[in-house]
């Protein structure tokens, strides 16, 4: 499996975590990659909440 396929697969896995909590909004997962490694990830947790991308950014550890 190519790296981009690994990243997309993880996005789908993250999106499924939300289940039906997103209401009419789509289930979305997001990963942040740096030097071929996932450094952050998130998903749209609930209707009206922050988007997956925002949650992914906030999950990145500060070094």
Structural overview:
With 63 residues, this protein is α+β, with helices and mostly antiparallel strands. The protein has a single domain (3-59), classed as Cytidine Deaminase, domain 2 (3-Layer(aba) Sandwich). 38% of the residues lie in helices and 21% in strands. It is built from 2 helices and 2 strands; from the N terminus they run αββα. The chain has helices at 3-18, 52-59; strands at 29-34, 37-43. It has a two-stranded antiparallel ribbon with strand order 1-2. A hairpin with a 2-residue loop joins strand 1 and strand 2 (37-43). The longest helix is centred in the first third of the chain and has 16 residues, at 3-18. The N and C termini lie far apart (30 Å). The mean pLDDT is 95.
Search tags:
63 residues, alpha+beta, 2 helices
Mean pLDDT: 95
In the CATH hierarchy, the architecture is 3-Layer(aba) Sandwich
**Cα radius of gyration in angstroms:** 12 Å
Query: Unreliable segments (pLDDT under 50, ≥5 consecutive)?
Result: none
The biggest sheet amounts to:
2 strands, antiparallel
The counted number of beta strands is 2
First-residue to last-residue Cα separation: 30 Å
Corresponding CATH superfamily: Cytidine Deaminase, domain 2
What gross morphology would you assign?
Answer: flat
Major sheet: order of its strands? 1-2
Task: Kindly identify the CATH topology.
Answer: Cytidine Deaminase, domain 2
Please report the first level of CATH classification, the CATH class. Answer: Alpha Beta
By DSSP (H or I, 4+ residues per run), the number of helices equals: 2
Instruction: Please report which band the strand proportion falls in: under 5%, 5-15%, 15-25%, 25-35%, 35-45% or over 45%.
Output: 15-25%
- In helices, the fraction of residues equals 25-40%
What order do the SSEs take from the amino end to the carboxyl end, as H and E?
HEEH
Helix/strand-derived category reads alpha+beta
**Overall number of domains:** 1
């Amino acid at each position: 499996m190519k790296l981009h396929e690994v990243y997309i697969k993880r996005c789908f896995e993250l999106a499924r975590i939300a289940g039906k909590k997103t209401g009419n909004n789509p289930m979305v997962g997001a990963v942040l990659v740096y030097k071929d490694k996932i450094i952050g990830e998130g998903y749209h947790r609930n209707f009206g909440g922050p988007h997956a991308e925002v949650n992914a950014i906030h999950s990145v550890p500060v070094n």
